[in-house]
Amino acid sequence: MSWQNGAREATPLLGGYIPVAISFGMVAVQAGFSVWQSILISTLIYAGASQFLFVAMVAAGAPWGLVVVMTLLINARHVVYGPSIAPWLPKSRWWPFLSHGLTDQIFALALSRLPQLPAEQRLGWYSGAMLLAWFSWVAGTAAGAIAGEELSRHWPLLGEIMPFALPALFLVLLAPRFTSRTWSIALGATIAVAMLLTLYGFTNASIPLAAASGALCFYLAKLTIRAGGYRNG
Amino acid sequence: MDNGFWLALLLVSAGTLGMRFLPLLWMQRHLLKQKSQGGLASIPGWLSVLGPLMIAAMLGVSLVPATADWSTWLATLLGALSAFMVWLWTKSLGWPVLAGVSSYGLVILLVRISTGG
């Protein structure tokens, strides 16, 4: 069954999703949101970084208009995800719902796996992966909002260790892309810029900025290699 | 929480869904149009470059430890190396992630035990 395959291949995501969702549930309740409100935020917005910002800004008493604008700005990177995987997605009336689950991680997984799957299995695969990730995020938030402090008292290291599943997964998804000098330069530069921006505290802007720098490197490297080829040839 | 919360939640949810769904819908229609005109249905070149670079950026962001000190950097380095080595060996998704998390966790545990933390 293709949806089972999707759910199975999305399982490594849970190591990253559940501990972060538990933290979000705890933070939201501490900021004055009720358990139900915290769960609703995770169910409806379903975008990690922007949810933390939403809660922090509300707790700090920021105007609602500013909360909406800032939260949407952080999520603006999502506009390139759908078009990037569109060639491998069949038409379906379920897309208005299914695209709700197009997070950073599901996009990364889908971009790597969908081209390898037969066309008739893609919708099922995506649905299984997306639903598992979404449910784990909502369930993790509920657990954090209801019993977050107790969970972190019982398993203090688990929340620190399990999120490493995300960089490990991204690494595995990216490794087959180092296929040429141009790609290696662009990917290496993107990783380095993203790490630097994160280290200097620009975590929210680092994904689009690093990807844009990487694209610049890609086209510059391509031009340089082509120019070198003409000189030698 | 006042009514502002519900309105903000609604706007952010609808806006985020729109940013995920509308570009997808637009590209699906664009590809169908290309196909119906007898052309080869393909996405713009810059978009196929940007996709893998977004994953690389996510990797860069997630590699930086939440509490950055020598032990978490060492754990990150060894965790990433283990994941990569197991990927070279198995070319699968799950096993490299398991190996990466195990190595990362082992280093953190050993450092905690040796420093009595």
TrEMBL record, chain B:
Entry's transmembrane regions: 6-27, 39-64, 70-90, 97-115
InterPro entries assigned: Brnchd-chn_aa_trnsp_AzlD
Keywords assigned: Membrane, Transmembrane, Transmembrane helix
Statement: the UniProt record of this protein carries the keyword Cell cycle: no
Entry keyword annotation includes Phosphoprotein: no
Pfam families: AzlD
Protein name in the entry: AzlD domain-containing protein
Species annotation: Alkalimonas mucilaginosa
